[in-house]
Design a protein that fits this description.
Endonuclease Iii, domain 2; about 0% strand; 7 helices; about 55% helix; binds iron/sulfur cluster; mainly alpha
């Protein structure tokens, strides 16, 4: 089961305060906080940190607010902050949106065609972990 599915089941079926991040939520987050027009093809480690930083404090909630946050963010990305035609005029977070404040610059060719650079990606982190595990295994530490 993938990260998204596991978090979605925990949150929506069991009201656990799990961070759920789909493509729509990633797009909203990078626009509001990073002033980027698109989130890219891959959920990066930097985006994961951003999603967790923006998430309601799980210690202050029994799950209801967290689940509402996930659903609201998803709907915002799906209905208002769409990929090609964001409706900034009716957006409830327009006053705090960094991309809008920057003049809603169009994506660069690189942002349109490339998902992301290698640095900061999940693949980079997975590779680093595998290297650590391989080295630890070879040295007899594990
Ligand atoms: S102001 Fe526009 S770009 Fe920013 S989050 Fe809202 S719809 Fe998206």
């Amino acid at each position: 089961m993938g990260e998204y599915t596991a978090a979605a089941v925990a949150c929506f079926a069991f009201e656990q305060p799990e961070v759920v991040v789909d493509t729509n939520i990633r797009r909203v987050l990078v626009r509001v906080f990073d002033a980027r027009p698109l989130a890219g093809k891959t959920y990066t480690a930097a985006q994961r940190r951003l999603a967790h930083d923006a998430f309601p404090d799980p210690n202050l909630d029994d799950g209801g607010v967290a689940c509402a946050w996930n659903i609201a963010s998803m709907e915002l990305g799906s209905l208002v902050c769409t990929s090609k035609s964001p409706k900034c005029g009716i957006c409830p977070v327009r006053d705090m949106c960094a991309w809008r404040a920057a003049g809603s610059p169009a994506p660069t060719e690189e942002q349109k065609t490339r998902g992301q650079a290698w640095h900061g990606t999940d693949r980079q982190v997975r590779g680093a972990l595998m290297t650590l595990l391989r080295d630890a295994s070879a040295s007899g530490s594990i």
